[in-house]
Amino acid sequence: MRKPVIANAVARAMAERSKRTGINQDRVLLELAKLGFVNATDVINMDEATIQGTANRDDTAAIQSVKVKRIPTEDGGIVEREVRLHDKLKALEQMGRHLGMFDDKLRLDGAVSLSFVDDLESE
What we know:
With 123 residues, the protein is an alpha+beta fold.
């Protein structure tokens, strides 16, 4: 990748793939924003553990899974529901990294003075 010819060829191939697939940084960032900024109460009816009828497509994009378990009983049955959203914290972290908000590199800055002492006796 140090040679300009190779770096340019790789960049050109990546740009062509992005155009062909429709996948680019903007699209990925927008999808992460859907996960990171969703309000769970806009998606989930907390009393019934169901998806809100008023939830829009951007909000429902944050749903990771929906589980419904029916347990028959003598009284008719019990229904257990679970609606899980994608990891909000992870999405926010990935967006923050993209924006350069986090720097995991250890930086050591400062002035250091050195002095050499000859403590050997001359013979």
